[in-house]
Amino acid sequence: MTKEIKNKKNQMSFDFDGSSEAQTITEEPEETVKTNKKTAKSESEPRTKQADAATAESMAAKQRDISVSEFFAKNRHLLGFDNPRKALLTAVKEAVDNSLDACEEAHILPDITVTIKQISEKKFTIIVKDNGPGIVDKQIPNIFAKLLYGSKFHSLKMSRGQQGIGISAAGMYGLLTTGEPVQIISRTDRRKKASHYHVQIDTSKNKPMIVFDETCDFDLPTGTQVIITIEGKYQKGKQSVDDYIAQTAMSNPHTTIIYNAPDGENYKYERQIKKLPFLPVEIKPHPYGVELGLLYKMARESTAKRLSLFLHHDFSRVSSKLGADICKKAKLSPTSRPVNLTIKEAEQLHTAINETKIMAPPVNCIGPIGENELEHGMKRTVEAEFYAACSRKPTVYRGNPFLIEAAIAYGFKTEQNNGDDPDKQPQMELKRFANRVPLLYQQSACAIYKAAVDTNWRNYGMSQSKGALPMGSVALMIHIASVWVPFTSESKEAIAHYPEIVKEIKLAIQECGRKLGMYLRRQRRIKQEMAKRGYIETYLPYIGEALQEILLLKDEQVKTVVTRLKDVLEKTRQI
Amino acid sequence: MTKEIKNKKNQMSFDFDGSSEAQTITEEPEETVKTNKKTAKSESEPRTKQADAATAESMAAKQRDISVSEFFAKNRHLLGFDNPRKALLTAVKEAVDNSLDACEEAHILPDITVTIKQISEKKFTIIVKDNGPGIVDKQIPNIFAKLLYGSKFHSLKMSRGQQGIGISAAGMYGLLTTGEPVQIISRTDRRKKASHYHVQIDTSKNKPMIVFDETCDFDLPTGTQVIITIEGKYQKGKQSVDDYIAQTAMSNPHTTIIYNAPDGENYKYERQIKKLPFLPVEIKPHPYGVELGLLYKMARESTAKRLSLFLHHDFSRVSSKLGADICKKAKLSPTSRPVNLTIKEAEQLHTAINETKIMAPPVNCIGPIGENELEHGMKRTVEAEFYAACSRKPTVYRGNPFLIEAAIAYGFKTEQNNGDDPDKQPQMELKRFANRVPLLYQQSACAIYKAAVDTNWRNYGMSQSKGALPMGSVALMIHIASVWVPFTSESKEAIAHYPEIVKEIKLAIQECGRKLGMYLRRQRRIKQEMAKRGYIETYLPYIGEALQEILLLKDEQVKTVVTRLKDVLEKTRQI
Fold this sequence. Notes:
The structure is a homodimer. In chain A, about 40% of the residues lie in helices and about 20% in strands. By secondary structure, chain A is α+β, with helices and mostly antiparallel strands. The radius of gyration of chain A is 32 Å and the shape is globular. The N terminus of chain A is likely disordered. In chain A, a hairpin with a 2-residue loop joins strand 14 and strand 15. The longest helix of chain A is centred in the last third of the chain and has 53 residues. At the A-B interface, helix 1, helix 2, helix 3, helix 4 and strand 1 of A face helix 1, helix 2, helix 3, helix 4 and helix 5 of B. Strand 1 of chain A pairs antiparallel with strand 4 of chain B, so a sheet runs across the interface.
């Protein structure tokens, strides 16, 4: 029985780019295949009740392509679909990320509506609608029902999406758990009707299938609406969809988000800033970030006629003069053709690049949220007594520009504490963002957590155990903006520990921490002064009485002396 | 300039299965594409110095396929190639895993030779040779230079490899960092010469390219030798290649491994057991692990003529009678054709399956290392005073059979401690294995770590802080064998926190822990007895003298009395 199934599966997958493969693999000496069965068997120890011994030939018959969708369907926890609650969040997140990216790319202030309807105990329908530019019909099936398809992977530019997996993975998860295809309504032109597609992924081929399509009405001049039905679980609190929407509003003050939760509650986050954020431009790779093998490949595939021009055209920050200088340093002719470069020569070129001083990459590819906007965002969600924020200058890891921002809010009331009792202090709340997207899972695996834990918060007047976040009613928000955020998994939940990134986060935390420290010291001084003032007010009358007795003063004189004494004592205090 | 580069890239990737796509996507209304440019623009706010506003059309022009190799080349940390030291380990590991799998599948006792040569400061050549069945010529390019290609992904059977990524990813990393192709020498027949291939991956297409091939001599009748040159770093100690090889020898006592380290040292781990381990067979999926969408897909693609036979043939543990029963419970005709199943009917069938009692899946698809073998393995690497081991019975998570084994070694000498001073006690050493492969990274993200930390080790006489591993010269080894190990990332370093898995690991730990606890209590009693014996021996002579004075005994009598007293006192002790 098992064999039958196997054969069937083989047939199914053989169509998958089998034809083009034959061109690449030139030699297929068939004769080796038939004769080795016995030889290999004589090497083995046959055993009963267990599997039969395989031969090179029988193993070859089982080797085949694995479609990337099959791979991720089986490894869905890599994409953030580990459990129903997280699955609901991940699906919403992927759709909202795409909507925001599309609006910003088209320079449209985003209006997003998220609606979640509970269909049955475990079944939810997610509807995300935006006022973006819409999606051209022929791209809809690919974008929503094919993994590893998109516009952002190959461009060095800050964006929320980067992998071309997210939204189609959400659709695939929906299909797997409920059997329902993804629906997309998209309108790209106010003079036309919208298109309505039902698409689903063919997981064994990673290809989109159109189940149904028609034209329909749409209440916005342009925009996109995505409808996904999945097995999920709705639960409020930390790491919930509600939490994600609130944090998204915080890091995107230029966006209006309406959220209709499955329990019937409606939330509206109005935009705070009526202007688009910094709109990043695309850059070319920086020479320092390119490895030998990649440099070799780029040269061989370049259309440039001269080696120096290849360096100038295909990389950022290499002038044609600098290109020629690098060639000379590598002992290669600047006029040689890049397509003829040998691996040996590529090695020389690679060494020369890394020995040459080249300006850091341009930073107009990434944009901060901004210090004011960060403080503003914090104030919207957390009512605290003290706020501070800072945006660091852009810097570089492995050739990729990035920048770090931090904001801190201190002294708010939470459910666990009343703000005063030090024994009931909660741990610091850490809010992590990457390219304006809130990260809700895998906190302890994240570079941001590491930097926060490694910071010595006692310097800033807070209590902290070793290897832990500090205690107190403090919220720390960290934002990393980069052309390529190095996530630790496809689910984009935590940032890898690149030393350059951890260092910058620490510096940003320190900047905010110092301001907090100053505030806390000042608060402490005020408290001490208040205590002193209390003493003065308590004891001054007795001093007055004593002076009256000693110096035989009149009541009037005593009053004057006491008032003066009070003034003098208060002046010596510095608040 | 940027635009030019983009166009070039587009051309490169359009050949990638572009033709077959046209068949799937039926409708491409081209007319919508041209007209919407102005409309979308009028929606936007044009800004200077930043990126131009995109339209649905301009965005569509940038959408394209991302090859899975490009994806992993950019996300190489997902595959375990984060840094040079780890990259060296990962490459060795992938090659050795493949060799062991191939030998076992062909029922050959594995002889593996691993040689690492340092070429320059950062460049290493890795050579892994096995006596397996060899690889058929035409499969060599696919196996070594194409991601997501292999025989293990689609079969439910215990094996080291499962994803079809590992060895080709190592080759790709080598190509990227050194530009050198992977070399494979393989012989499948003692009457023929071996084949020698140089292959490399075309990352923009995820297709293998044969650089060079020839026939050559090989000193074994059958076998495979892989040669990969990569940028790496060799450093001894924890998480080193040396560590990996030693642990692999421990979990594979049927294997001989010769390891020639780059510093010139040679290690030989002789096989301890001259018989092959349990050889797993392939099973069909269990109905409980199948989700609605997948059930629907399987039915539609089944060759079975009747619904009841579909259940019987395509799943394990469903007899034809049980298949008919499930159909009845779902209110579907057992004789209906599975290909005609609707999604509504699939839902009924899915509910019926989960309401029916079905036997747990067969367990001959997974095999333990074995308690004796585990203890043996521990003894080879750790010289301790106490050992215990246990193999749990197989059980199931999400339809996948798995089993847990644990072994413990207590009271060895390490560099940090002399075995006695409790202040200098190190933390427990945790050794993690999945399908006999040692896991060296991401310990704290692993289900094994979680189970070890959640165990109350004080019950077994050890000291432990909350949320930490216990202290003491103890090594704990945990092995999970499964048809599908749920790793937290493609680099296969940690196991996801499935509750069923964590629970089984805890039970295995408890079994070993109780034995350790008994041993430790006994040891403590012996110690106390020793102390008592010391007291007896110290004070008995004085008691003798006192008795002599009081009772006026002779010296002889005193001796007898003292000897008797000693006997009596010692008998009352229970050791």
